[in-house]
Amino acid sequence: MSLSDIATKLTAHKPRLEAGHVWLAGAGPGDPGLLTLEVLAALQETDALVHDALVSPEIIEVAGQAEKFFVGKRGGRLSIPQGEINALLVRLAKEGRKVVRLKGGHPTVFARGGEEALALVENGIPYRILPGVTSAFGGLASAGIPVTMRGVNGAVILATGFAAVSDDRPDWATLARTGQPLVIYMGLTHMKETVADLRAGGLPPETPAALVENATLPEERVVVATLGTLAEAAAREQVASPALIVVGGIVALREAMAGSA
After folding, report:
1. Given 73, 98, 103, 197, which residue is catalytic?
2. Residue 230 CA to chain centroid, in angstroms?
3. Per-residue exposure over 1-30, b if at least 16 CB sit within 10 Å of its own CB, e if not
4. Which of 45, 70, 210, 256 is the most exposed place for a label (fewest CB within 10 A)?
5. 76 pLDDT higher than 90
6. CATH assignment, 3-133
7. Contact 114, 87 (CB under 8 A)
């Protein structure tokens, strides 16, 4: 039985993608093997694929029959304004297309899928959200860092470090005082300010930290440091986006959990 047949069989109870509908789908953190069967089935049904820069070419090829609309969306680089993407989704749906909006990771985890969903609702466009493996959890697994560990942490905080000053900027000092590990998306640009705020919130400079570049992909790199040496390590190793920043005791478990695989 082919993978396509398996996807069809295991998603047979799910709704089918209809003309005039938009499905907001998560492609996972990069590795095509982390694509869900539900998203795989949707890609085989769509005739209009609207995708981001961080979606792997192998995944895009699955929708070989679809017209492709590239809309960028890569941290630190110019891309199509969100309003124009919303308008594109609405236009394609009103043309009677079967639309899949494919995003890296999970569509509503720092991916603006919620904004797109609201735009669709406002225009009377039926939609579904198809979850994907979010970059934080896929990246930590690939880097050998547990998300939680008894005796180490009872929670994990996902945050975005993209904004220097905005309503979306986390209160880093408050998050630091929780004592729980942080996984920070899009955090390279303002990393020095973020580190300073975390230390002001009480996190000691020796707190374990790591950078995971190109998580789950063949070119993945993991740079282990401490909170106090994180910015220096990123500069020395020339870490570039996309990269996750991980801060907390779970990083210290990486070496102990390293296996032979």
Report:
1. 73
2. 22
3. eeeeeebbeebeeeeebeeebbbbbbbbbb
4. 256
5. no
6. 3.40.1010.10
7. no
CATH for the 136-257 domain, from 3.30.950.10, 3.40.50.150, 3.30.450.200, 3.40.50.720: 3.30.950.10
Q: Are 214 and 138 in contact (CB under 8 A)?
A: no
52 is catalytic: yes
Q: Is 73 a catalytic residue?
A: yes
Task: Quote the mean pLDDT of the chain.
Answer: 93
What tokens does 171 get? 């209160």
Residue type, 177: R
Task: Decide if 68 is catalytic.
Answer: no
Query: How far is it, in rounded angstroms, from Cα 193 to Cα 256?
Result: 31
- Of the listed ranges 35-44, 147-156, 163-172, 190-199, the least confidently predicted one is 163-172
| Active-site residue, from 103, 186, 191, 197 | 186
Distance CA 61, CA 44 (A): 10
